[in-house]
Amino acid sequence: MIEDDDFIVGSGDYLRDRGYLGSAKAREILLRLTAVSMEQQGIPQSEVARLTILQQSLLDELDELIDDAEGLAELDQGKKVRN
User: Fold this and answer.
1) Taking each helix axis from N to C terminus, what angle separates 24-40 and 45-82, rounded to the nearest 10 degrees?
2) CA–CA gap between residue 79 and residue 58 (Å, rounded)
3) Which of 7, 64, 65, 69 is the most buried (most CB within 10 A)?
4) What pLDDT sits at residue 42?
């Protein structure tokens, strides 16, 4: 049972230390932790579901931005090597 927000904040360290960070498993764990936290705060289940879908969508967008940034960094690195 999650008792405070410190656990959720510290969960990123937990996932990183176990090699899950950035994985589908990490996303699943973080989405569930967030949902459990909202439920414990008394947020209605329908709102938790809506917010979880929104959070998942934002994570998808973030993944795309990271991929784009990594691609740009690789292009930039290639330009530096050629020059």
Assistant:
1) 150
2) 31
3) 7
4) 95
Longest dimension (CA), the chain: 59
Domain ranges of the chain: 5-82
Q: How far is CA 35 from the centre of its chain?
A: 13
Residue 62's Cβ-count burial label (10 Å; 0-12, 13-18, 19+) is: exposed
Helix (H) / strand (E) element for 50: namely helix 45-82
Residue type, 3: E
Identity at 52, one-letter amino acid code: T
| pLDDT grade for 4, boundaries at 50, 70 and 90 | very low
The per-residue pLDDT for range 16-64, each reduced to its tens digit, is 666 665 677 778 888 898 999 999 999 999 999 999 999 999 888 888 8
